[in-house]
Design a protein that fits this description.
about 110 residues, mainly alpha, Annexin V, domain 1, 3 strands, transmembrane helix, zinc
Amino acid sequence: MANRERNKKILLELVKQSDNSRCADCGEPEPDWASYKLGIFVCLNCSGIHRSLSSHVKSIRLDFWEDKLVEVITVLSVTHLYFCCIRLCLCVILMCVCVFILGDGSS
């Protein structure tokens, strides 16, 4: 059986992490909603957009979160962070390759 207070505490800790502390869509600080299918945290305005797109969003403060959903969003939010880091690394590598091939423009 789900423990409402424990799950809420886990969600509030997740949203404090630097990568989750802003809305994944618009960058608004302190998002109060989460998409448990995408593993992202979003603000109230963006949660409405997700709802209209049939995305599964819940309030991290007001809604009841079952244990399984808390486990899912915990894993997905870490996975989302991992892929964001990979994407950033690939962008940096691509920029370095472009500078190497095209030169630095100082000639």
